[in-house]
Amino acid sequence: MTVQRNKQITDSFCTSINAFYNALLRECGPFTLNPDTRRFVITHPESGEQLTIPCRHHATTGRHILGTALVLEAYGKARPVTFAESVDWCLDHPQLRRFSDARSRALFRQRVLSSQQNLKQTHNHLRNRLDRIFHEDADFIDSEQALINGHSIHPCPKDRGNMSGSDTLNYAPEYGGRFPLAWYSVDRTCLTTHQGTRQSVECMTASLLDSDGSCRAATAPGQVLIPCHPFQHRQWQAHPVIQRLQQGGKVRFLGFGRPDWQATSSLRAIWSENHDWMLKFSLSVRITNSIRHLQPEEAMRGPGLTRLLEREPLTRWRRANPSFRLLGEPVSLALCDDDGSPLPETTIVFRENPFRGRSARHCEVLASLLQDDPRTGLSRLALRLLARHAGKKEAHRWFRRYLDVAVAPLLEAQSEYGLLFGAHQQNLILKLDNDLMPCFAWFRDCQGTGFTSQASEKLGKSLGSLIRNSDNQPPDELGIRLFSYYLFINSTFNVISSLAASGLTGEEALLRQLRHWLEQKRSTATDPGVIDYLLHSQQLHAKNNLLCCLQALNENTLEDIASIYHPMVNPLLTDHPATNNIGQGLQNHDDQRDYQLNEDL
Questions:
Q1: Is 366 in the same domain as 246?
Q2: For residue 198, what pLDDT is reported?
Q3: Which of 97, 276, 304, 583 places its Cα 20 to 30 Å from the Cα of 339?
Q4: Is residue 223 one of the residues assigned to a domain?
Q5: How far apart are CA 187 and CA 346, in angstroms?
Q6: Is 31 a domain residue?
Q7: What is the DSSP letter of 411?
């Protein structure tokens, strides 16, 4: 590929434009799509000005592939505008002004432009690795650290608030850094734990210790060793309660271990090839819609779910789905304040780590498979299939395998047992076979689980205390909306748009396939609430990522979670017109590395 051609491709796609405007178009529309110019049109009702955004691929499922040539039309004249200028123009739009004040708009603008700058730096830093990221085989940690774009429908997917540039280089997954754990010795009276296993906290932490045993020797009687993320270590040292505990000798910092650890795509969850456990920490960083502190009620969910999964009827569900597994989180712990209440900033979760050695090969997080190559707008999934000269048949086979391996067990857990799993793209990991087809799936993140009213009947009395203490039984209607957003709108619809944008197959054909698959599942579902919602509702509900960010809401601590969801047209309705032919896909089947892109008007 020539240098000139590379520049043409780079100029035709912008990650920030796609993430920002896909969120705005979905949340604040409907906006007109001009079929002649292939542009979305956003009109300012007071000035009459129009901002137009090129659409290279239109998706009824909600994630379009957008071009870069933003144009502002005013007083009969049209001029190109930069992304930053377009954001300023949007923030003056009445639809955004009525949801915000001047201060929140200024903070929002800062976060959007910070994300844009971070994305530019990352893409520039990794420019020599992009072929590897989007075209070559990957193991678990390769895939986790390949999520360089962040959330594909969010105004500031790579803003990290108070993380400095050096922190980002050290701890952000895309930079591939290795770092040590900080080790503390904590008096048992200052520690709260939740356990879903007979294995003690002492045994689990001991398995993480360095072989030289220096931290073990430093432990005082009546104290427990606990690990801390090195970024959060600074937050602990500055915390007034922890400072008092340290002064009283109840908490002691022992030092750092070996640099064995790497960040996964979620930043606060870390992995090491040398240990049986991954660790998930509270991190005092705002990412997307929340400050990443694990709340006390969230910390109970993993251990509680571990206990449930070891009993009938969930052991039956596990046996019936041998190609699917939940990554257990059997233990959580946190330091306590003076009243004995857990400090959310100090929560630590132990998570199973099956991704070691040969077992890590070809295990890929769905979000990395579906993210857009910043040079082309095509996903890793599409590029990998195209490199094998795949066509429509292979695309539909991949989609069916994904549905059977990853979606079916989660849907069965909901319809038969009342379990709700927040299975968005970052929480689903697929193992691919030699033909790149999904053959095994994992769900992670027990904090994102809940229960419907049916669960109490199916899972027995043991569920009662878990629901009461972990605050995760929403009203059934809301539970259906949340479950469907994560597993279908966020994950499955993005699989559809990724495959369709490549020209491998059409969006309408994939939607028909999904509808037929859901109809088959309904015939045996005990509780068909989710399936009926997907098949028959005029509208589905998606998260307000842009408006949530604009209002500086912390999603983790909202009392009314339904308030940050908005209706969208249901693309599964049979009478919904398919318009995915705009652009006819983005690639040229004759040459997998040279793309016939639509003109970026």
A1: no
A2: 85
A3: 304
A4: yes
A5: 15
A6: no
A7: H
